[in-house]
Amino acid sequence: MENKIICNCKQVSVADIEKALHEGKRFSDVEKAFEEVQMITHCSTGCGGCHDKVLDVISQLMA
Ligand code: FES
Fold first, then answer.
1. 63: CA distance to ligand 1 center in Å?
2. Do β-strands 5-7 and 12-13 pair in parallel, antiparallel, or remain unpaired?
3. Distance CA 49, CA 61 (A)
4. pTM of the full structure
5. CATH number of the domain to which 10 belongs
6. Domain that holds residue 12
7. What is the DSSP letter of 11?
8. 44 pocket-lining for ligand 1 (C-beta < 6 Å)
9. What's the pLDDT tens digit per position in 5-61?
């Protein structure tokens, strides 16, 4: 699960997203967390097709 690639374009895995989340401060909502994770990992900056998957992972990690 940890090494599962969520964003194929940018080769961003669940572990990468988790790490990026921990680098950021505490986020009040998933959208802010997404922006931060995107800035750090560049996920969802290619085709954009992984957007919902990335959001899913973030909300699971934040739960
Ligand atoms: S799979 Fe993430 S931008 Fe294309």
1. 24
2. antiparallel
3. 20
4. 0.91
5. 1.10.10.1100
6. 5-62
7. T
8. yes
9. 999 999 999 999 999 998 877 777 899 999 999 999 999 999 999 999 999 999 999
